Amino acid sequence: MPLLADLLDSLVQRPWTLTRTLRNGGPQSPPSGWCSGIATFSLLRESSQKMNKISGGETRIREVLYHEKGEFEMRTGPVDGSHIMKAPFEKKYIWRLEEEDARNSDKGEEKLSIHFVKPAGSSSSSGGSESGSEKGKAVSPCEEIDYLFHELSFQQASQSLPEAKDSARILRANGDHLCVQDDYQSEYTFKVDNAEDSGLEVRSWEMSHTVKGPQKNQLIHTVFNRSS
């Protein structure tokens, strides 16, 4: 089974606890905010389309809804912690996996990209796409891609993964995004094991966004662990 398909399959299997730190002014700055919550991946839809006549074959497309929610805390008063603002947060993205003959040919390619979700009320009908379900829970097919956040570039996507010190394997990826004048440089790190019956199994993973612009200098770092 292809590497990125294994990775996405493992992420869908369970909820993930998230812990996020937001730092304004650079990585050495004191934390300016904290988040804690739960993130889930749920299959939205699957489809396939014919490739060009020269290459032949099919491209299999899978769209998975990433959904996070929890509580955000920000210090607004003295450093003694007497003034802490708390507020709920919620965010959704669509992770899109494209497999070009990946399950039928050694020459198949995989592409994994992350997209913003259309605002509520602006989505059109699913156009006949089949909605998915995860562990018996139906997922609404109304969630649709709005525009691209970034495509993930995996450092070891087609090679043997480097060994980590504790025998887990590490898979790294990066992506970039320009929002008007704000530049987002993103890094993803997945700690995985080889599962006997299902390829890769994700132990934990991390996501970091470095944001720089005329009015921004921010580091957003999130750690995801298996939810008990």
Can you describe this structure in just a few lines?
By secondary structure, the chain is mainly β. It has one helix at residues 3-12; strands at residues 16-24, 33-50, 58-75, 84-100, 109-117, 130-131, 133-134, 137-138, 145-151, 153-154, 169-179, 182-195, 199-213, 216-226. Strands 1, 2, 3, 4, 5, 6, 9, 10, 11, 12, 13 and 14 form a 12-stranded antiparallel beta sheet that branches. A two-stranded antiparallel sheet has the order 7-8.
How would you sum up this structure, described in words?
4% of the residues lie in helices and 60% in strands. The protein is globular, with a radius of gyration of 19 Å. With 228 residues, it is mostly beta strands. The chain has one helix at 3-12, and strands at residues 16-24, 33-50, 58-75, 84-100, 109-117, 130-131, 133-134, 137-138, 145-151, 153-154, 169-179, 182-195, 199-213, 216-226. Residues 125-138 have low confidence and may be disordered. The strands form two sheets. Strands 1, 2, 3, 4, 5, 6, 9, 10, 11, 12, 13 and 14 form a twelve-stranded antiparallel beta sheet that branches. A two-stranded antiparallel sheet has the order 7-8.
Which structural traits does this protein have?
about 230 residues, mainly beta, twelve-stranded antiparallel β-sheet, two-stranded antiparallel sheet, 14 strands, globular
